[in-house]
User: Fold these one by one.
Assistant:
Number 1:
Amino acid sequence: MSNIIEFNNINKEFKIFLRDKGLWGAIKGLFKRKHKLIKALNNVCFEIQEGDIVGYIGPNGAGKSTTIKIMSGILTPTSGQCKINGYIPWKDRKKYVKSIGVVFGQRSQLWWDVPVRDSFELLKDIYNIPTEEYQKTLDILIDILKIGELLDRPLRQLSLGQKMKCELAGALLHKPKILFLDEPTIGLDAVTKLAVRDFVKYINKEWKTTVILTTHDMTDIDALTNKVILIGKGKILYNGSFEYLKNKYANEKTITVEFLKEYDKIEVEGYNVVSHDKNVAVLKNFPQTIFNTQKFLQTITQKYEIVDFSVNTISVDEVLAKLYKEFNL
Amino acid sequence: MKSYFGIFKMQFKGQLQYRAKAISGLTTQFFWGLFKIYLYLAFMINQAVDGFTTSQMVSYIWLGQAFFAVSFISLPKNSEQEIVKGDVCYKFIRPLNLYNQWFFESFGEKLANILLRCFPIIIIALILPSPLTLSAPTSWVHFILFLTSLIISLFLSVTLGMVAVYLTIKTLMPKGALDIVNVISGLLGGFYIPLPFMPQSIQNVLNYLPFRYVSDLPFRIYSGSLDISTSIIQIAISLAWLFALIFVVKLLMHFALKKTIVQGG
């Protein structure tokens, strides 16, 4: 499969104005303005292949949305080359945007005070979709997103979840080759989140749509894709499989042990005692210790009498938190 | 073109559903019109000023009120939100020209506003007793010239609205931008004080500016205070201004949007 998105040494700088604090600072700012250059993206390079779903992750302010905006032709980078679907997004904007769909989770692209169907019909005109094809696509979208009865209501009367489903449908009416989703599940309830994920999977499989998704919800990534790009402070930190990231940290276990009686001191070979209170202790394995239930029990029961124990593997969110910490984000 | 017509239709339809807004606007404009007419009647003491008769003044005011949406410069309805909050990014991802998207939105909105409000005011003004009554147009030719000029005025008004959009992009202060454009255009265009009341020397200058072609020329033509040949010449000037302004604002907007940054996620 060929690369549909190529990002080469993309830099984006923003100029922000600084002001000293207080009234005096405000007055000084009237005459002399100081500014600072912020590097939102720093030599960003990556490639995305046709038909992939790629998770684009990173903490707040890392440059995710800036990247999405450059990819959708909204922003012009300060330097660097980018080719998407054969176009340079910000140069061939009008031609290029016909082949992409974008959903920004926190903004709306449909018209506020008219029924959703009217918004869709306007999109049909804007993208010049033949009536027959439009009807066919719309039927499929209605069917998977279950938005049939929402179409005749004005957007302002819909709930957040209903709105998001309609936004998704709106972004896909012209069957784009690439779909950018910027935090599509933000603020959605569990059921709607699942529906959105199923939908993304469906269009990726059936329409071969390439999907680039930014999110803070790691379960989104877990459910949708194995390919992630991690960005922090404007730099690409990791580009590869999500499984690898998880395994790197999944070895770390937290074991809570309840003892029969109170011991003064607890020492287990290969484990760290994180906390110890009365007859309950929390242990963590050393990075080099591979956790094994049988071996662990043997070691600990040699010295102590125990009542119960439980083992916790770290969650996906914790993996990410660790990762951010490791990269000093 | 089909897509721009679609955008126009969308705003037109959207605007038509706000009936209460239209009724309240209508009422305000009607009473404001009465107030202005009585004010100028008191000043004129039943005498013509520089050949501008009281009945011409009354028609001038009524038409100004009926076509308030033409004289009043406004931003496209959602542009404020789009520019300040960054929703404009969705305009960028359409395979369309940004300027044209706003232009046709604004046009649809204004036309709906005009159609909702002009007929009731005109009908009431026609049946009011003298001296408050709106006179019939001087002649058929005048009436046709009036309509032509009014259409050009409508487009000029939308274009001046785009100047306000441009200023909003530059300053991120929609209210300030709109106020600047409205005060200048209203004052120099005869919206606040009918131009015939201004000294001839000032009027001579204002003839060269675009503003009087927004809110003065069509109503002057209707009331017969300009003869036909002058009317035609001035319509030609207004058309020239329209094209010149569209060109300049489009150019300015092009450069402004090149530098646009949409911040935040």
Number 2:
Amino acid sequence: MVTPKERVLKALNLETPDRVPLVPQLQQFAARYAGITMEEHLFDTEKCAGAFDVTWRGLGGWDAWVMAPRPEGFVNDLRPIPIAQPGRELPPDVMYQVHEKPIMTVDDYERILDVGYKAFLRDYFFRLHPDWQSTTLHERAVLIRDLQKAAIAKYEAQNVPTLVGGIAETPFDEISQMRSFEEFTFDLFRRPDLVERVLRVVTKDITDTALRMAKGAGGLAVWIAGLRSSCAFVSPAQFERFVWPSIQYMVEHIIDAGFYAYLHLDQDWTKNLPYLRSLPRGKCLVHFDGWTDIFKAKEVLRDHMCIMGDVGPTLLTLGSPDEVSQYCRKLIDGLAPGGGFLLGSGCELAPDAKRENVEAMFETCREYGAYS
Amino acid sequence: MADTSEQLTRAILELREEEVLQLVRQRLAAGEAPLEIIAALRQGVAEVGQKFEKGEYFLTELIMAGKIFKEAMVDLEPALERSRQQSQALGTVVIGTVKGDLHDIGKNIVIIMLRSAGFLVHDLGIDVPPQTFVNKVREVNADLLGLSGLLTVSFNPMKETVAAMHAAGLRERCRIMIGGGPTDERVRAYTGADYVGQDAGQAVRLAKAALGVA
């Protein structure tokens, strides 16, 4: 009997398991499935764990968790960007959202160079959360680590792995959100040298922090999220200058620390695919959200990098079970041959996906995804 | 004058911010008609848009061109008022991110492109309820309504806004375009909108086509 963990590891290592592993990035959908509010799902540790368990049993399980099944709200609090959360800035039963505003200033670039990014963030968090006590910042990080550790261990005991223990964004994405997309874009043209120097400093500190979290919490991989760092946003010249060196550094250090590098790439990375081919073979996982041509990705990254995706939110929300099943078959036909494929959702599984569509996705993977 | 117009168009096309602003000030000081200067700037932004659609320019370049245009307009608008010239808008657009969604990057890029193409745009911001759209469309007698959303939860508010436009009797005289991350033809059909735009360039083309000013 092949365990989910064996199945997932084979795919990550570019081998062929017994069937295509099913790895949905299932987070807020559990709230809808189990009938708790989004606020409860994000901040009530017990109810959140209960909702994940109900969803797991109801859908017959899957092969790996992407994020540890823990309350996301506390993690959102430690992201250096303003996030409107249900029960706080938003009504209790809606999805949390990034509410981007320019909180970081141009002067902060120099400050980061002076004191380092970690020290800068310690002050910066009080701009985001003026009511916080300085002593609790560390406690918050420890709480998240412990919640993740417990959630990962609980499923690991059933041989179900969790991919992500440590989380980072590309420094380009992170600073862009802190400055706001438009202001950061102007910075790229008006003060490119300064931005480049700052990103170098930020890269190192972001990597250290993510690795510390991963070492403490567990998980197979460290997550690197990129969205506005793709050529859907930036020119190839800007990508090579402001984005790619960070990704190379992060991937190298994540692998050296014994983890897989999990590139969670939203938006269209089709033009960037050749760069990914130069990362170490069999040590990375790339997850697309439906914008990147995943079939083209298979052509470029075949036998080099495990690919995951990409059943998208619009299909799962407005499509029919037949349409979902058809798309999953197309994915399996195109991406499963030769191994190195995980069938998953495009980004997070849509919280308001129709239940029957999620069931169709899971059934198709289990039945049609067999390699024999 | 053709030479300096060309120079200005080229400067914005190549995203040389300082040079654009300097040229605009020089030409204003030389007594040139603001509308001619604006035409040269618009031409530059339009060429940036074309390069974007051909895949030669990228979003950051589109945004920077829009920013330079906006900055130049800070000098040009008072001159326009003094000269009593009127810029003839291609049409009036009301736009916003629908109720329940707080994202506005895509919407703001579309606004930059619509404005620099010559549309008069009223931006209602984010998390906009259906009735607010309806009221604004009626108030400014809009030709086109743009509804933006990044999340799947925006689909129902888009549909409700289209229904509210029907109920208000405005549906016949105002076209509706949707756009944003997860929107596609399926979502357009679901919401009852007329058009769906995949990016800012397409949004401008659709807006021009909708108003017959292409």
